[in-house]
Amino acid sequence: MKSFAGLAGILVLAIVLSPTASDGSRIFLQLGNLTDVLRQISVIGIIALAMTFVILTAGIDLSVGSTLALSTTVVAMVLTHDFAGMGYSLHIFVAMLAALAASTAVGALNGAVIALLDIQPFVVTLASMIGIRGLAKWLSGNANIDIGFGQDVAAAFAAVFRQKSVVIGSYLALAVVFWILLGRTVFGRQVRAIGDNEKAGRYTGLPIRSLKVWVYSLCGLLPGFAGILYAAENHQGNPNAGVAYELDAIAAVVIGGTRLAGGKGSIAGTIIGTLTIGVLTNMLRLNNVDSNVEMMIKAVIIVLAVAVQRQRGVE
Amino acid sequence: MKYGILIAVALVAVGCGGTSSEKKQLFVAFSQCNNAEPYRAAQNALMTKLFAQDPGVKLVIADGQQDNSKQVAQVETFIRQKPDLLIVAPNERAALTAVMGQAMEAKIPVICLERDILQPNYTAYIHSDNMAIGRQAGQFIADYLIKKNGTAKGKVVQMRGLLGVEGEIKRDRGAKEIFAKYPGIQVIAEPVADWIQAKAKDRMTEVLRAQPSIDVVYGHNDPMAIGAYLAAKELNRDKNMIFVGVDGLGGTAGGIKKVMDGILAATFVYPLCVDKAVEVGLKLLHDPSFKPEKDYTLPSTMVTPENAAEMYKKFTVDE
């Protein structure tokens, strides 16, 4: 794996540069810190899995951050709504289902417009990035919806879904599912085929339109699920959550070696890309690097990562 | 054909505009710099509520989306509409100064809300004082440490807002002015969390990993103090430190509720300034002889568990 070398390099740096705790151990290597990193990357990581599929079709989805915000808002609204007599588990289930349905509908709509009206994905998802943000803010009246600070159904929801094991476990499980979906199924092969050469795909009878609707629906579903985790972790439905998350997700996919022009790429690469950013961020912050400098360093790393892969690709 | 439809739509729109002016209603235009911040959403809600009590007033709110040029364009459009009163909460001082001057030249009364501009291009400026709030918060923290440790000695973590913004600079400077008087108070970490609860939680988690002992977390706004609390709670360290915030919004998602719930030890109300603005605005609309003061500075209120319930009632806007 070409991008693996980059991750390994940053891991070594993170270990070497790590400040030490009072007992002399390296803070970076503490189990708590390592799981912090995994938890912190999970939200972007989950979105990046679906983004990989979209980019493989030579598409892009700019609306994932807004979709995440919509999902946090919907799940919080349903959780704080009083359904007389409904049990906790059913209430939580309904809230999650509503959030997932809303966000999947956004993805399906993106896919349908892209496939049926034949408009560029950039334009369609740019429009829904704006429109869905508006919807989330309209639903919540611009306000955050606090959940789970008391002893109620929302507290029970947050207690379960903010647990590190649940968040990291969900990311791992979804990563495995998407890895199999891309690498071991007909659907995955067809997704790659569209990105490689859409015209050829059409001549060979690929169901291009329905494939695209499916891919973009997944790219609504996963940010929707990430939104549920976000709401639980931060105890809030936040219509302003997830601004610029689409760029973080795209960066992870690109660092992982997936070609923006479609056709070539892998889920494993995306996971490595996500980890690379996560470890880098943690390393810089444990060393108290100025937040503005952090942005500059990240910029350099992104370009370097892609350039290195290019070089090797040419050889 | 397309253009035909557009023109038809435009004509209908103009037609509607023409008929609605039969009954003279006072038109109040409010240019808000960014609806996305909870503080500003609360301002909008309170202003809508207060102006709704006067049936002769029609209020329109435009959202500048934290973008200077968008807000300038919106104010320009408002000037064309000749409102009876223009209220502007400027996104940044330099950018809005000129356009607010144009409104004054057009003989529109202008209220400048909360943030100042470079020249006094307004009828009245209504604001609070972040420096004073920073000092109040700093003094509260010093007093708490004296009570806890006998002397003003202890470790403080600051959660900073967006760097370079007036509120962030002054809430920081005011508190540090007080800390400077007590050499025993150490600021051991000041991560930047851009006012956002989710970011504050992540930044605080890293601070907790590196710092075995922390006495006080001072968030430059309540959401960041709450984010820090969530991080500490997860590591079972929330009982070893207190959390102090600023903003003190009412409502279930506001900081005052968090003081009532024992999550924040204190918050300092950053006044919405809206009640004063509406009061001054209505006088400007209805009383031609009214001469407002140029500058109204509104004091902050400290909210602690003792007065939280009372303040919650006072600062919550019913929906």
Which keywords apply here?
heterodimer, A: 315 residues, mainly alpha, ABC transporter involved in vitamin B12 uptake, BtuC, two-stranded antiparallel ribbon, 13 helices, 2 strands, B: 319 residues, alpha/beta, Rossmann fold, six-stranded parallel beta sheet, six-stranded mixed beta sheet, 11 helices, 12 strands, elongated
Strand content of chain B: 15-25%
Please give the share of residues in helix of chain A: over 70%
The structure class of chain A reads: mainly alpha
Q: Helix tally of chain B?
A: 11
Strand % of chain A is: under 5%
Poorly predicted runs of 5 or more residues of chain A: none
Q: How many domain units of chain B?
A: 2
- Total domain count of chain A: 1
Number of strands of chain B: 12
Q: What is the rounded Rg of chain A?
A: 20 Å
Plain-language structure description:
- The complex is a heterodimer of chains A (315) and B (319).
- Chain A has 315 residues and is mainly alpha-helical.
- Chain A has a single domain, classed as ABC transporter involved in vitamin B12 uptake, BtuC, CATH 1.10.3470.
- Helix content of chain A is 75%, strand content 1%.
- Chain A has 13 helices and two strands.
- Chain A has helices at residues 2-17, 31-56, 64-80, 88-117, 121-140, 153-161, 164-183, 186-196, 198-203, 208-234, 245-255, 267-286, 291-314; strands at 145-146, 236-237.
- Chain A has a two-stranded antiparallel sheet with strand order 1-2.
- In chain A, helix 2 (31-56) packs across helix 8 (186-196), helix 2 (31-56) packs across helix 12 and helix 4 (88-117) runs antiparallel to helix 10.
- The longest helix of chain A has 30 residues, at 88-117.
- Chain A is globular.
- The two termini of chain A are 15 Å apart.
- Helices cover 46% and strands 18% of the residues of chain B.
- The termini of chain B are far apart.
- In chain B, helix 3 runs parallel beside helix 4 (93-105).
- With 319 residues, chain B is of the alpha/beta class.
- Chain B has two domains: 2-128 and 272-288, Response regulator (Rossmann fold); 130-270 and 307-311, Rossmann fold (3-Layer(aba) Sandwich), CATH 3.40.50.2300.
- Chain B contains eleven helices and twelve strands.
- Chain B has helices at residues 2-19, 38-52, 68-80, 93-105, 130-149, 166-179, 197-210, 222-234, 255-260, 274-286, 308-315; strands at 26-32, 57-63, 85-88, 110-113, 124-127, 154-159, 185-189, 216-219, 242-247, 266-269, 295-297, 302-303.
- In chain B, the strands form two sheets. Chain B has a six-stranded parallel sheet with strand order 2-1-3-4-5-11, with helices on both faces. In chain B, strands 7-6-8-9-10-12 form a six-stranded mixed sheet, sandwiched between helices.
- The chains are: A mainly alpha (315), B alpha/beta (319).
- Chains A and B meet through helix 2, strand 1, helix 10 and helix 12 of A and helix 2, helix 7 and helix 8 of B.
